[in-house]
Amino acid sequence: MGEPVPERGVRTEELANRLEPILSRYRGQEGGLIPLLQEVQGELGWLPEEALKLVAEATGLTLARVVGVASFYAQFYFEPRGRHVIRVCTGTACHIRGAPKILERLEEELGIRAGETAADLSFTLETVNCVGCCALAPVVVVDERVLKRRDHKKLWEWVRKRRVE
């Protein structure tokens, strides 16, 4: 991922220059919208409105169509995300084995609630219905890395270290 674009009102010219290598590969291709959106989000960390306008222009689709497709899929984000994304599994096995307490402690440690991103864009905290690692419950996923029950001490150390950075 490139440098995240955290602020709203990003200058269109700068954004267009940054996205041109990606957009040029999809210019005029209506059928490649999802991979294009994935690449743009991979570069920026989220999908600001100006980027969606550039995608619409490059593909020849309407902005409404681009936003409609992007908003249908949970993988696309319309708000800036933290440098570190922490997901707490709240599936049945994780819930029974303590996920609510872990989530509560993370909210306290990070100063944000589930579904929020810290103002300094250091963390995003989310819940997920199931990670698919029930035997390891309760599970927390940190930046795509699964932490099982026995690794939670490492989680608290990791969070404290990142809060200082």
Q: Roughly what percent helix? A: 40-55%
* Strand order, largest beta sheet: 2-3-1-4-5
DSSP E strands, number: 5
For the biggest sheet, the summary is:
5 strands, mixed
CATH topology of the largest domain: Glutaredoxin
Structural class of the helix and strand makeup?
A: alpha+beta
Q: Which word captures the global form?
A: elongated
Residue fraction in strands: 5-15%
Taken together, the total number of domains comes to 2
CATH architecture of the largest domain: 3-Layer(aba) Sandwich
By CATH's scheme, which homologous superfamily of the largest domain applies? Glutaredoxin
Radius of gyration: 18 Å
Q: Class of the largest domain in CATH?
A: Alpha Beta
| Rounded average pLDDT | 89
* Alpha-carbon distance between the two ends: 20 Å
Tally of alpha and pi helices: 7
Low-pLDDT ranges: none
The helix/strand order is: HHHHEHHEEEEH
